[in-house]
Amino acid sequence: MSADCHESGGQTSRKHLAAKGSPLIALAGQPNVGKSTIFNLLTGLNQHVGNWPGKTVERKEGKFKMDGREFRLVDLPGTYSLTANSPEELITRNFILTEKPDLVVALVNAANLERSLYLVAELVTLPAPLVVVLNMMDVACQEGLNIEPHVLEAALGVPVIPLTATHGDELARLLEVLKQMVTTDIVQSPRIPEIRPDHKQILDQMKTLITGHVPDPYPPDWVALKLLEGDREITARMQEELPPRQWTEIHNLLKSHDDALLAIASGRYEWIGRLTRAAVTRPKLGQVSLTDRLDRWAAHPVGGLVLLAVILGAVFGLTFSLGSPAQEWLDSALISPFAQLVSGWMASSPAWMRSLVVDGVIGGVGSVLTFLPILIIFFAAFGFLEDVGYMARAAYVMDNFMHWMGLHGKSFLPLFLGFGCNVPAVIGTRVIDSWKSRLLTILLAPFVPCTARLAVVAFLAPAFFGRQAIWVIWGLVFFSLLIMVLLGVILNRVLFKGERSAFIMEMPLYHVPNPRTIGLLIWQRSLSFIKKAGTIILAISVVIWALSYLPGGSIETSFLSGIGRFVEPVGRWMGMDWKLTVALLTSFVAKENAIATLGILFGGIQGSSLAQSLAGVYSPAVALGFLTVSLLFIPCAATLAVIKQETGSWKWTALNVGLMLVISIAAGTLVFHTAAALGG
Fold first, then answer.
1. 3-state DSSP call for residue 488?
2. Burial of 231: CB neighbours in 10 Å, binned 0-12, 13-18, 19+
3. 160 in Cβ contact with 149 (< 8 Å)
4. Which end of the chain, N or C, is more open, meaning fewer C-beta atoms within 10 Å of its C-beta?
5. 306 or 498: whose pLDDT is higher?
6. Residue 635 is inside which H or E element, if any?
7. Exposed/middle/buried for residue 309 (C-beta within 10 Å: 0-12, 13-18, 19+)
8. Beta carbons within 8 Å of 558's beta carbon, 6+ residues apart
9. Can you tell me the distance from the alpha carbon of 392 to that of 508, in angstroms, rounded to the nearest whole number?
10. Three-class DSSP category at 578
11. How far is CA 177 from CA 67, 105, 131, 170, in A?
């Protein structure tokens, strides 16, 4: 791949020392172009996720090795442009300008080049070596597009690499080009977009006025362009740097040419048009693409809702029909035999020590680890739907339904994330533009039953309801979602006066999901769950065991019994004794703790043995009340932490806790007494 095309445009040069350091590569691109897929393919498990300093925007960094050398990879936030309209845009451009990465890899959607190349039109003006990756070439092919990468490369003046993430040979080619680009002297002369001719003179005047006053590391040509675009950050910065007389001249120049933004955008779109006309052959007029054919059903106002219901039903049915037997096997084949083995090893140990290890540690953590098969199946199903491109359609068809709550289709995506975990659901509300819609979505997100809550339900329901368990689970989930919808309608009318917001969202093209990407997602989320079981839940299990054992070794006279009996009057409204009430309280730290606590309180038994023991003690009406309140009880500590982080207010966090506490107790009481009256 040659990077030495010489044409009009700024020249980018960077010296590299091939034998020293870890080259820094930045991954840039618009949303839905496959950045996360490429990032995961390159870094595998060697990645770290956090937040950018001072921002709530996610920061992903990773490392990969090639020929024994380590490369650092930063996944920049998905953004459509580099104008200071959002934190993502500021982060992306400031990282490239200040951190000076050895290479910027711009991912574009080969099936939607016109839209994807707009970001490239801005990246080529920055002083960083650039490689363009045409991702989703297989999707472009199925849409009837014929793209000639070598023609696009010649027209751009930078390397262009076609890629289908599922093809290993193409990924190897990408790696080879990356290595070549960061370990050799680079001289690039990309063809950059030109401003519309009627504003070229104005741009030249702007460059003259700012010469000598542009602070590092900003390129003067780029700053002049951003001033004409009306970029808020650059305008404020240059107003500080320039003498008052020169700033007045610039201000007057901008006022008299307030259409400069259109002139710049027109130049970029003309540049994109020339590139695509040269390199892309389109399908014949009237040819219907695969995406269009599928969307006749998936995006249909009525058929789309039916399809969504079928898909969600299939996901839950698959999760519990496959997960429950696997859960029982894990308990009977591994957890219980291990507990018996350890108990035998410790036969000569003091009774309290044996009880701590067997009942507290293995009984508590072991019960929670049996949830793992259910979680893995759900993570796999969700990863598949996300990777294939269906989730945007689900948001689209849910738009009218979401309007009842004063929300729009975008709110469906974070709410759906809540089925996996409420923490990413709350963080996922960042995609919502309107603050009021985002706040309402944050308040409603914890009402979506997460996998931890669903695992508790799936663990107990079969023991109490047998073959009818799947319908009980369905009913409880539907009841929770119905309460969420009704609460959304009420909150929207009371807090936000029934306001609605518009819905604008890009529909990605359907494509074949990447098994490795889905596998990494399953691995990362499962590992996170196991870590939680080995840290937070282990610590809570030990504390619960200590409270249940002290002061005299009997649960009935223990400290935990005292706490439980103190709050038992409230639990009795829902048919729960002090043991169930304590289990509910400990679920505040992690929802799985409810089962771990019950395992300890009932003598350290786990798995199906624990579920059967509970079924022998409590009636189905009590079980229904407990499961109802478990699904609606206050969020776990981690969810409350991110609610505070995302709202920046204890007031909204306290409102969420108060709402869920009142609603869960009221719903649990109603369900218990109704079921008891019907003979449950």
1. helix
2. buried
3. yes
4. N
5. 306
6. none
7. exposed
8. 547, 548, 549, 550, 551, 552
9. 7
10. helix
11. 13, 11, 9, 11
Q: Are 390 and 297 in contact (CB under 8 A)?
A: no
Amino acid at 513: P
CA distance linking residue 351 with residue 400, whole number of Å:
61
Q: How many CB atoms lie within 10 A of CB 281?
A: 10
Give me the pLDDT at residue 1, please. 37
Instruction: Give me the sign of the Cα torsion angle 643, 647, 649, 654.
Output: negative
CA 663 to CA 482: how far, in whole Å?
12
Please state, in angstroms and rounded to a whole number, the distance separating the CA atoms of residues 386 and 521: 11
Tokens 């609610």 sit on residue: 643
Per-residue pLDDT band at 663 (split at 50, 70, 90): very high
At residue 56, the pLDDT reads 55
Residues whose CB falls within 8 Å of the CB of residue 642, separated by 6 or more in sequence, listed in order = 423, 426, 427
| Region at 70 (left for phi over 0; alpha for psi -120 to 50; beta for the rest) | beta
Is residue 19 over pLDDT 70? no
The Cα-based distances of 361 to 109, 356, 606 in angstroms read 50, 6, 11
Q: Which phi-psi region, left, alpha or beta, contains residue 194 (left: φ > 0; alpha: ψ -120 to 50)?
A: beta
Give CA angle at 370 (364, 371), nearest 5°.
105
* φ, ψ at 612 (rounded to 5°): -70, -35
H or E stretch at 188: strand 186-188
pLDDT above 70: residue 553: no
Alpha helices, DSSP H, located in 508-649: 515-534, 536-549, 559-573, 578-586, 593-601, 607-617, 620-632, 637-647
Contacts of 435 (CB under 8 A, 6+ apart): none
CA distance 107 to 638: 34
Asked if 575 and 672 count as a contact pair (C-beta separation under 8 A), the reply is: yes
* First-residue to last-residue Cα distance in the chain: 73
Structure tokens at 534: 């080995």
- Locate tokens 């043995």: which residue? 609
Rounded CA-CA distance 422/141 in Å is 38
Give me the residue label for tokens 């020169």: 246
Q: Which stretches does DSSP call E strand in 22-176? A: 24-29, 47-51, 58-66, 69-75, 103-109, 130-135, 146-147, 160-162
50 Cβ neighbours under 8 A, 6+ residues apart:
58, 59, 61
pLDDT in tens, 586-637: 777 667 778 777 877 776 555 567 777 887 888 888 889 899 998 898 887 6
Q: How many residues does the chain have?
A: 680
Provide the total of helices (H) and of strands (E) in the chain, helices listed first.
Answer: 33, 11
